[in-house]
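2024-03-11 09:14:02 INFO worker-7 job=invfold-0412 stage=load source=structure_tokens
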């Protein structure tokens, strides 16, 4: 059964050379813990004719958290399972530190990788208490009862589960189960932590809180972490680096600010959210025509005469009641199609005379009825050239 296999595999088995110091106990030297770099080199996984993971290269430094972000079906889980060693690559290889752990020729089994993986389903043992679930990986390592007891106690305190030690998973909320899964994965001190949409079973409030918790634990222990999610804000809260995936490939890799402010493709601009994509023909290196207005765009350069696209965020577009006097650049006439009050903001859909629709986010007090003629201002420095 897959879940049972996953439950067992959650726990990295020790290497002969491993010396495990009790957390917080004597010999616990956080600064000296091993943390592995993880490197994917031209990694591909094909099922039949479909390349589910397609020539992915990614280098993750020691102790960093990288987020694989992308829509459902883009190959995130498959990439994670390749890293964990549950499946073998069709091409390319994975190295942890100096050691190649996966290649089409040879794949090191999951239990020899010193990795912990947290599954979307948590995969807790239902017949074990919280304390026993957390202790499980150490029990496999045949550590002494006293050592296990101390480390479990310290880990339960860190993950704020001490009061729940005697409960069974069925007696816990989603958030509590999620913390047990984290505690159980962390207690074996993996070199690498793999998380597959770990918060997707939680309700919205708890999900937000747990994002910070995941990041806090990462900062405390500094594992090399690969975090998979389809949620943009989850990725932005937790990751040092975001790899945006599309159709089995990494479409853009960078720190959250860069991905957000400088999406390089239409896919990234749309997926990272809240961007309008405007398509047309480039008039010259700086201008794209929209509804007869030459939009100036300072974020990148167009190829004159070619089909081109730019992105501009919904909240960077200004909604104006009248055209500014003095003929300001980048102002386009439009009609309000839709105005939705969202409490902290208003979400508009407007349409230009050439039928381009733009989303605009404004302050909640800025209330303009549908059907009203308005102008939109697209600040040149907020317009980004997208790769063709
Ligand atoms: N064992 C498999 N056999 C065939 N196709 C698979 C298998 N596992 C995954 N896929 C396909 O690979 C694609 C990517 O899946 P997955 O990695 O789970 O995506 P994600 O986690 O990003 O939602 C999907 O189209 C899925 O149907
Ligand atoms: Mg998945």
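2024-03-11 09:14:09 INFO worker-7 stage=emit residues=388
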């Amino acid at each position: 059964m897959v879940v049972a296999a996953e439950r067992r595999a959650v726990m990295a088995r020790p290497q002969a050379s491993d010396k495990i110091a009790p957390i917080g106990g004597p010999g616990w030297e956080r600064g000296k813990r091993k943390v592995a770099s993880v490197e994917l080199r031209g990694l591909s996984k094909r099922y039949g004719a479909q390349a589910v993971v397609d020539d992915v290269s990614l280098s993750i430094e020691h102790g960093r958290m990288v987020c694989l972000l992308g829509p459902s079906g883009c190959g995130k889980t498959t990439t994670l399972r390749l890293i964990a060693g549950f499946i073998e690559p069709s091409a390319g290889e994975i190295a942890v530190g100096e050691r190649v752990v996966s290649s089409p020729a040879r794949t090191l089994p999951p239990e020899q990788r010193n990795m912990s993986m947290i599954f979307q389903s948590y995969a807790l043992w239902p017949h074990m208490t919280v304390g026993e679930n957390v202790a499980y990986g150490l029990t496999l390592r045949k550590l002494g009862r006293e050592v296990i007891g101390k480390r479990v106690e310290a880990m339960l305190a860190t993950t704020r589960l001490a009061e729940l030690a005697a409960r069974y998973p069925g007696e816990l909320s989603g958030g509590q189960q999620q913390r047990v899964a984290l505690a159980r994965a962390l207690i074996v001190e993996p070199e690498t932590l793999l998380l597959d949409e770990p918060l997707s079973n939680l309700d919205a409030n708890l999900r937000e809180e747990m994002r910070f918790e995941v990041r806090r634990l990462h900062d405390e222990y500094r594992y090399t972490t690969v975090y998979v999610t389809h949620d943009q804000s989850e990725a932005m809260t937790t990751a040092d680096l975001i790899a945006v995936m599309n159709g089995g490939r990494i479409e853009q890799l960078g720190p959250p600010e860069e991905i957000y402010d400088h999406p390089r493709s239409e896919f990234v601009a749309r997926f990272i959210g809240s961007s309008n994509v405007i398509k047309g023909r480039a008039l010259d290196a700086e201008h794209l025509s929209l509804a007869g207005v030459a939009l100036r765009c300072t974020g990148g350069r167009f190829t004159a005469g070619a089909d081109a696209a730019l992105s501009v965020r919904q909240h960077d577009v200004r909604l104006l009641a009248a055209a500014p006097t003095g003929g300001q650049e980048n102002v386009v006439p439009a009609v309000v199609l839709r105005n939705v009050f969202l409490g902290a903001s208003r979400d508009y859909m407007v349409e230009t005379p050439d039928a381009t629709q733009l989303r605009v986010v404004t302050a909640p007090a800025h209330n303009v009825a549908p059907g009203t003629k308005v102008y939109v201002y697209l600040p040149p420095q907020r317009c980004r050239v997208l790769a063709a």
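2024-03-11 09:14:09 INFO worker-7 stage=report msg="The longest strand covers residues 50-60."
2024-03-11 09:14:10 INFO worker-7 job finished
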